[in-house]
Amino acid sequence: MIGPLQDQFDRKIDYMRVSVTDRCNLRCIYCMPSEGVKFIEHHEILRYEEILRIVRVASRFGISKVRITGGEPLMRRDIVRFIASLSEVSGIEDISLTTNGVLLKLYAGDLFKAGLHRINVSLDSLDPVKYESITRGNHLSDVWEGIEEAERIGLKPIKINNVPIRGFNDDEILDFAMLTIKRPIGVRFIEFMPIGAKEIWEERKYISTEEIKNKIRVLGDLKPVNSDRQAGPAENYRLPGASGVIGFISPLSNHFCSTCNRLRLTSDGKLRPCLFSESEIDLKNPIRNGCDDDEIERLLCLAVQIKPQGHRITERMPCRFQRTMSKIGG
Ligand code: SAM
Ligand code: SF4
Fold this sequence. Notes:
This protein is an alpha/beta fold and 330 residues long. The protein is 28% helix and 17% strand.
């Protein structure tokens, strides 16, 4: 290893979120506008070989964790082959994937064999009618079967990501919290963010972590759980006697910028140092114009150097971002 990537604010950057596609088989109301989005042209999407080259160079600088995301990563052809190649990159110790779970039952076994370590499944409702109104898709039973298949083959830990939105699914917070009592899964509540489908965002629909925690406390005390380095920005707790853990991710009420250890790579090859900043550094064109690895190293270091100290999203609401979450890579 050449040396760890360290930014101006002494944060060590060892985690890269890689978006492999902006396509998706769902249209979640908070992520994509109802009219749909204009997809990035196929030839603008990084080829797997190009992503692997970037990850190889980044791993020399201490990037050891990679999360695959999208859009819906399981929609991209040959995703299993890609993960198998990624797991052979020296220095990459942890590979995880965020999925909506629709295709998980089909892929869980092969992903596990390919070297995937962990999986996060986004699920915002356990009620089929509500699930359909949130995702504009009718796949709740597929997602649930996918989670059970992932559990069966040993993809651990499985985490369910849930975005509570006032008036949509906040009446299910306790049902999700109770999933952790009997099953060794993690349920993570993520604060609704003003990014993605602009027509849906309203401040009154946002529910803070504090409010979610207060609702859950009717089930018992939330005992803090020591977070390991893989826990990322989540604050973790356990209900009395529960097998699984409840996590809270609070990008708005308690932003975790001071410990942020990540860079994002968009599917069209831009390095994005912060989810909430539009600054991006292009890697695709330099690579396609024949640059050498030294140039990739230089651009990676530049992205780390321009990583902002923190976001100021709460001062800018309502926000206007060029990219939806599916295009950035959530
Ligand atoms: N399609 C995959 C999925 O849904 O898990 C991966 C990509 S999706 C953009 C990643 C995560 O971003 C999901 O857990 C989703 O709930 C979250 N997300 C999207 N828009 C959001 C918003 N406005 N506020 C909070 N979370 C959001
Ligand atoms: Fe697709 Fe994930 Fe966005 Fe939903 S949150 S539309 S599943 S990318």
